Task: structure prediction
Amino acid sequence: MRDRIYLCLAHMSGKEQDFIKEAFDTNWVVPMGPNVNAFEKDLENFVNKRVEINPETGATVGEENPLDKKVVCLSAGTAAVHLALIACGVKAGDEVLVQSFTFCASSHPITYLGATPVFIDSERESWNMDPDLLEEAIKDRIEKTGKKPKAIIPVALYGMPYKIDRIMEIANRYDIPVIEDGAEGFGSMFNGQSLGTFGEYGVLSFNGNKMITTSGGGALICPDEEKAKEILWYATQARESYPYYQHESIGYNYRMSNICAGIGRGQMTVLDDHISHHKHVQELYCELLKDVEGITMHGNPAPEFDSNFWLCTATLDPSLKIKGQENAYKQVITGAVGGAAGVTHAATTSVTDCQPNDNVEALRMALDAANVEARPLWKPMHKQPVYRDAPAYLNGVSEDLFKVGICLPAGPYVKEEDVRYIVDIIKENIDTGK
Ligand SMILES: *Cc1c(COP(=O)(O)O)cnc(C)c1O
Result:
């Protein structure tokens, strides 16, 4: 049997161990130090550059470094969302507008603060926050609550940029800060500028399965030195400068360790390669699947969008028949799909009131049997039982996409031959009725 093909496996450059060894040799085995500082500089250099695009051809015509954002490294992307919300002044009883079609780490930190997430549905082009619904929600929340929402969180789902030009125009008009959740979109650009640098704050994640990894970790892109210092202060228990521990605010233990940052420095040397590889894999899927009726790859909707294609995603026409789909959802799942860590609650039912179509589940199972990890799209937060009481502004798009979509492997270990194998498995499992 061939080795299992995973969605996105961490891939080391080989330089990580040198930076870690240096940390041990100099006894910087703590949540700060030279690797953390150097990793932050590397990240700043990366996100502050702007790639000039020829508007007619979409070709790259030059690079410059016009931005001056500051980056603070943290223990997780989730911590970055949490601290960005605090820095935007979010408190108990406030509301925050957040994309519904996302991983829970975009919205859970809102609840940590006793605030309420207000979910915004997606538009069909990018699959991300619908600017029209965003504006409708702002107006309606002001009318219903008498208060403005405290922040807006668009999410680069699977790396795809959101319509940040329109989102920023609306946010600026209502004077509401934007926290870009670019956890899946590190290296993605809109009009030649890195995601995470348009809004007040930008969230990055270096979890084990993201574009680059520090084993676990994240960062917050901040507008300036002063805001970066405030985030750093919150991330290190909000200590006041006295010779003894003096606390006037509540802080958190969210700083990145110098060991993890060493991994990050090594990973920065392969980031560009990773991004090109993900884009190449996406192109190959598009090429090999272009004549397969009923399956559509999700690509950049317009020239200003430049996704890193962290995961490659496809949608299945509901009329497409997949072999064995009559057996989908017949069994209760007892472990985590794909072996995700920490799933200790067994499912109690084999179905829920909102789940991918039978053909999608049948294709996932067929790929799994062929030793390929595939996953449904993220289930929208407004359909999650834990958020049943949260306000939501909906157009049906994210729920529709969740029912027809599937994530396909895209990481550095996915070779051309693997993509061909995966596409062959997909084609073999289409039930043509013959
Ligand atoms: C992974 C992820 C995060 C959080 O990152 P962690 O580093 O895992 O805490 C936040 N938002 C989205 C959309 C993500 O996919």
Q: What stands out?
A: The pocket of pyridoxal-5'-phosphate is lined by residues 76-78, 102-103, 105-106, 155, 181, 183-184, 205, 207, 218 (CB under 6 Å). The CA atoms of residues 75 and 366 lie 37 Å apart. The radius of gyration is 22 Å. Residues 16-268 form a domain with the Aspartate Aminotransferase; domain 2 fold (CATH 3.40.640.10).
